[in-house]
Amino acid sequence: MVHMVEGVVSAPVIAGCTALAAAGVGYGLTKLKADDMPKAAVVGAAFFVASLIHVPVGPSSAHLLANGLMGLLLGWSALPAMAVALLLQAAFFGFGGVTTLGVNLVLIGLPAIIVHHLFRDLVTRGRSAWAAGFACGALAIALSALGAAGALAASGAAFVPAAKLVVLAHLPVMAVEGVVTAAAVSLLARVKPDALWTRPAPQPVPAVGSNA
Amino acid sequence: MRTLPLITALAILLLALTAAPSAWAHKIKLFATVEGTTITGTVYVPGGGRVSGAEVTAAGPDGAALGTAVTDAEGRFSLEATRRVDHLLEVDTGDGHRATFRVTAAQLPPTLPGPKGAPASAKAAPAAETQPAQDTAAPAMSEAALEAVVARAVAAQVNPLREQMAAREDRLRLQDVLGGLGWIMGVTGIGFFLLARRERKRGGG
């Protein structure tokens, strides 16, 4: 379970993560340009609903996160969008909680930023889009699961059993999320390649017929 | 439109979601009912399986431990209540899942002793058990025994209803999803408004 519920993580972890998350959101807001806003909203909405897609794991089930895709498409501006989406998930679905919002933002958002920096240049090369998309989605989940185990360990649980539980539960999710991210990325690479460049190539295109 | 493919993709995703027969909140849930002095319940994943081997702890309103139980393969557990106080049941599976459930004192039979600080109510209960039996020998059952029978019969009727209500709460409703998406649009709108105002100010100054 990557969304930490209230009462599982200790107060110092919550405080530290909340500070880190607030800094990240602030930085992300400075990176969020008006042109990227619709993209951020749509990807944020996809993130919001992706958590409803469940992958059965033994008796339990885990859900998709879409944080890899979100990070890849949005970069740092994924964080403010994610903060809104996480708050709404807590309010509407009971995933996580309001006080653990910062913890969840770090656990889910940090991997998004990491895969963004790792994969943004690979993905744009058309043919490798599928492989890079898969790795991006799967790695983001793995990092989130490890982070969740770390947060539990920092709150007093033993790291190894917690990590085993969380990571094992997320192995099928990694596979499914990898496929979904790969499909989305390769589709975007074909249909709308410019969506994959968060920082468009510096070509001074004059705004034609728009008031942007 | 540059964003059209993205919007189409989102629309498809949404359609797939609404067509899916079960959209469940992902968390574990704890549910318990009372029969006599026994609290029985299950730990489960809504829409999924049962959680076995999880330790359920019960605490009183003052935080004092009232007992623990471990769920079996079916996710069931049972606890004997020894006091007529609110039982706050809690389960923590160690992987970030945690659930609580409150069994109120009113659900427990009055024959149990009350909270530690108030022994008066504890005495009242056994008294009710013995006295009426002496006063009126006519009814075959003592009042307390009758009460216990009625309580059991009511519990048998009410407990399935409680279960149904809990199950209804577990279901995610489409309006929640749509409401969330509406919020995202609204927040985006506010973002555009703020940006536009900043742009206008910059343009003016």
UniProtKB/TrEMBL annotation, chain A:
One of its GO terms (biological process) is transition metal ion transport. It is found in: Cell membrane. GO terms for cellular component: plasma membrane. It holds the Pfam family CbiM. It is a multi-pass membrane protein. Keywords: Cell membrane, Membrane, Transmembrane, Transmembrane helix, Transport. The chain crosses the membrane at residues 7-28, 40-57, 69-95, 101-119, 131-159, 165-189. This is Nickel ECF transporter.
Automatic annotation (TrEMBL), chain B:
The chain crosses the membrane at residues 177-196. GO terms for molecular function: carbohydrate binding. InterPro entries: Carb-bd-like_fold. Residues 114-138 have a biased composition (Low complexity). Residues 107-138 are annotated as: Disordered. Residues 1-25 form the signal peptide. Coiled coil: none annotated. Keywords: Membrane, Signal, Transmembrane, Transmembrane helix. This is Additional component NikL of nickel ECF transporter. It comes from Caenispirillum salinarum AK4.
